[in-house]
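// run 5 | inverse folding | seed 20
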């Protein structure tokens, strides 16, 4: 039996990031969270999920499996209003939701590989797929991850910082893209200099509460970028 799971799994994770974070706006997300199965946007999102999952499988016969992923995705999103009523689940809803989506993708891609022994999929290099995944992860998905971590730990957003959230997201995305590029190229000294310089700059802020909030966001941002970048060496044995 051939083992194409890592490649197909990576491709489907990329499909998930595209459909769940890049092709879904706040209006769609809010409608799903509020109305659940009664939201028309839920089924539009499901259609997008199916199309992207099928397209990035590079296999016509993956349509059934893309349908499985989509059906599970619609079910999980439709149930959000129910478990969001629970205080504990609401705090960790983002992580629970994403963990379930990833588990389903893993199960479905494994099932496809098991039932299609010897099938040939488009031979993209696994490392290239991982790098694409990392760069996609660094922008919108990680912004949501950081916000969810702050919410889960009940860290208060300073009022003076509320008007700069979009600017902060743009800065965070840019620094993560820079950081992971430096990690991929083994330029850890340059990365260390950037982290140190930014930390010193933030500690000069006269508003201690705001400085702490921004520092927490920066440390989380750099940590995610560094560990994602190191994954290239951990999983594939090299960083260049």
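// decoded
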């Amino acid at each position: 039996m051939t083992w194409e799971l890592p490649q197909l799994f990576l491709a489907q994770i990329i499909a998930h990031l595209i459909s769940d974070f890049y092709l879904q706006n706040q209006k769609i997300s809010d409608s799903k969270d509020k109305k659940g199965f009664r939201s028309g946007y839920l089924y539009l999102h499901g259609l997008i999920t199916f199309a992207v999952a099928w397209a990035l499988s590079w296999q016509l016969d993956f349509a059934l499996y893309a349908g499985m992923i989509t059906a599970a995705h619609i079910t999980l999103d439709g149930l959000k209003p129910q478990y969001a009523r629970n205080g504990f689940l609401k705090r960790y809803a983002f992580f629970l939701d994403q963990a379930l989506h990833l588990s389903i993708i893993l199960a479905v891609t494994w099932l496809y590989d098991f039932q299609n022994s010897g099938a040939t999929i488009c031979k993209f290099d696994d490392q290239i797929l991982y790098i694409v995944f990392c760069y996609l992860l660094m922008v919108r998905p990680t912004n949501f991850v950081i916000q969810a971590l702050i919410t889960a730990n009940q860290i208060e957003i300073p009022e003076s910082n509320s008007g700069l959230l979009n600017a902060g997201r743009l800065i965070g995305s840019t620094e993560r893209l820079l950081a992971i590029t430096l990690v991929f190229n083994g330029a850890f000294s340059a990365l260390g200099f950037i982290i140190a310089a930014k930390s010193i700059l933030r500690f000069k802020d006269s508003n201690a509460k705001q400085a702490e909030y921004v520092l927490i966001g920066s440390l989380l941002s750099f940590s995610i970028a560094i560990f994602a970048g190191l994954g290239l060496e951990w999983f594939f044995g090299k960083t260049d």
